[in-house]
Hints:
A: alpha/beta, three-stranded antiparallel beta sheet, 6 helices, 14 strands, B: nine-stranded mixed beta sheet, five-stranded parallel beta sheet, 10 helices, 17 strands, elongated, binds adenosine monophosphate
Amino acid sequence: xxxxxxxxxxxxxxxxxxxxxxxxxxxxxxxxxxxxxxxxxxxxxxxxxxxxxxxxxxxxxxxxxxxxxxxxxxxxxxxxxxxxxxxxxxxxxxxxxxxxxxxxxxxxxxxxxxxxxxxxxxxxxxxxxxxxxxxxxxxxxxxxxxxxxxxxxxxxxxxxxxxxxxxxxxxxxxxxxxxxxxxxxxxxxxxxxxxxxxxxxxxxxxxxxxxxxxxxxxxxxxxxxxxxxxxxxxxxxxxxxxxxxxxxxxxxxxxxx
Amino acid sequence: xxxxxxxxxxxxxxxxxxxxxxxxxxxxxxxxxxxxxxxxxxxxxxxxxxxxxxxxxxxxxxxxxxxxxxxxxxxxxxxxxxxxxxxxxxxxxxxxxxxxxxxxxxxxxxxxxxxxxxxxxxxxxxxxxxxxxxxxxxxxxxxxxxxxxxxxxxxxxxxxxxxxxxxxxxxxxxxxxxxxxxxxxxxxxxxxxxxxxxxxxxxxxxxxxxxxxxxxxxxxxxxxxxxxxxxxxxxxxxxxxxxxxxxxxxxxxxxxxxxxxxxxxxxxxxxxxxxxxxxxxxxxxxxxxxxxxxxxxxxxxxxxxxxxxxxxxxxxxxxxxxxxx
Lengths: 257, 325
Ligand SMILES: Cc1cc2nc3c(=O)[nH]c(=O)nc-3n(C[C@H](O)[C@H](O)[C@H](O)COP(=O)(O)OP(=O)(O)OC[C@H]3O[C@@H](n4cnc5c(N)ncnc54)[C@H](O)[C@@H]3O)c2cc1C
Ligand SMILES: Nc1ncnc2c1ncn2[C@@H]1O[C@H](COP(=O)(O)O)[C@@H](O)[C@H]1O
């Protein structure tokens, strides 16, 4: 039986135009929706799979404002059995603060008799992109950490994980308990069923207040790249444009000689 | 000194590591002319040292150790941490690749300092303020690094790699890292050659042909691959293409794929969503092929052809072949 903890972060959906707050400290999210990173969606799918295959349970955890329960519930809707909200201003939390707060919950739950042999995270958060909470959590919990994993399964006390490496698909075999960060690409995201949504609505979310004050992530300010007006030159329509295209390729000097 | 973790392949120092070395030299100069040291791990091809010399490297910490033969982020970072401590590093850098990011994350924890990911520029040196990519590349964050040692990964194409004019041979010291218990637990036990990750080739290709949902299906890539071949380039795809299983994930360009910066990018049947744009905005020239003249990729491109890619691309291929001497 492997109980799995999976960590997701509520972030503004940046598929539209991005605006900043006046103090340039954060994204102006008044007019956008919220989501989690694609890596975390895959981590949730893996957490639910491993739990189901080993008769364990998957728990979702998020550190953020009260509204972040929305993202926790989304994970319950696709198969997580329970949810934890570490209620805090995630903007004030740097990666070291986040990993410490997650570790506090893992240890507190262990004291209550629930051990998460596997903790899954995304490879990097969609907003701050710090690429390190997973590694830091490994040290907080004194567990081995694998990074950038696309698929995994648990047999007995070993997790076998695969990820893309420079020379091909790399395979790891690590004893539990372990921390693994997930990169999208290996699993299909799960979509909620109607009963799943109902269950998510009713689920109780354990709310935790972090014990340690955050030190922050060193942000001075955010800035946006300048918007550029379109200056596209249409070379033509349909196959008739081919000569104009090849003229361009010749001008750019990209045709191998 | 400034320490750089350098990745190598059969051709020696990989391009993104060369860029990182050039970037590091800039930081070293601004910090008052510090020497640049590097860590390389495992067997490296002959000629690696002269490539490092051409980047102005003064010392090479070469970890040649059986225990590091197979990759482990924890164990490899031990070699970086030793070199950093040994030479009293003021900063530790690596390219923001999967390995670079993993190794420096471990390194920053072991050194007890913060890490900045995907840095594109140094804004100030005392205190150190960097600009780095956030929100998948659609915004930058100025971040302050106050610790004694600054740990940072450098985003691909933050700078172009450039060689120094007066080359001196670096000293090479062979080192064996002090491993902690458990550092070898996360070793690669096997590499399945089946589908090599070509994302490195993609990131450094001079021409990239892009393919999106417009390809239409798993068997809709023939003409696109032929064009890629005719241009000696690499194929890059959108997330829709990898999600549908039409092409492998390592070919994905974008926020959760590779960042590319070719001389020419030819996105075909790609709408140009912000998350895709995050990975391709570094292209010098963009030529979009799309049947929708209003698609963001078309309006953001330098050049465009409006039409069905399954008609346009074969015509381009035929025209290239026709003009061949
Ligand atoms: C957190 C997050 C991360 C993401 N990361 C990435 C990422 O790394 N990379 C990425 O690419 N996406 C990413 N996405 C997804 C992104 O938002 C888009 O959904 C995706 O890029 C769209 O792919 P597409 O352009 O192929 O498809 P579509 O948006 O469906 O566009 C297809 C385009 O092809 C054109 N077309 C159709 N048929 C033809 C034809 N026969 N000939 C010519 N043109 C044709 C259409 O006009 C349209 O413009 C991410 C999304 C999220 C939320
Ligand atoms: N506020 C948060 N709440 C829950 N998980 C988080 C939070 N921040 C980061 N994480 C997890 O850590 C991963 C890596 O984040 P980062 O190191 O910040 O890029 C994310 O994909 C999440 O799984």
